[in-house]
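Next comes the chain:
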Amino acid sequence: MLTGFNTDIEYEGVVYHVQTEDKGLQTPFILSLVYTGGAILVSKRSPYDDLIAEGFDEDVLASRLSRQHKLICAAIHAGRIEDLKRMGERDAAEKTVQRQQAAAAKQTEASAETEMISLATEPQLEIAAPAPDHFAIAGPDEAEERLRVILLDEVELTGGNSVTLRVLVTRAGPDRRQPARKARVVVKVLGSTFRPTSTMATTSSQGIATIPILLPLFETGRAAVLIHAHIDGETAELRRVILPAKSS
């Protein structure tokens, strides 16, 4: 997964924050968010399944990531905020159609599987669901999240370093997403070679929590930061991998 971009742009007295990131090979798309005052105005998703099908090239992906971020920043500089909003709404509508088509296909597949099972003569074996992997990058589908966690400053997390995480928590509103005020945020540091630690904070009126943490020093194994937000019975999570400390 590539390092993303974060840019603040002021236009007619309003500061817009643009964040663009690669969601990783498990969920291959580039996501750009534009928000102000904690409220997300635009969400732009660009899949890159074609890169994976043709043979993944990280340089090409990095170029796409940079280009998408620069184009959105240029549109804001030109005052085309409403055009960006309409673009985001169109993308959301297309994604809804794709999700409905996928659900219909899944239902047809399930019906066929049920028919096959009814014809089978031997008992079926129950397969246990895989245990959750706390070190995975991919999270749930953003479009379906009522509560969402966003890491404002994407920095490389390396064992042994001290970092301050700025976390934005938003909730789905009637028209657009709104900052989640007084949400409880718990940051857990998990690793296969050290004991887990946790730190708690509460979001401000802008939906932002600032959490300083110390990343344990390790050179082998796997580790990750798990950011968990909770408010009024709703929860959301975000995960980031911690890299091992480099040997001197």
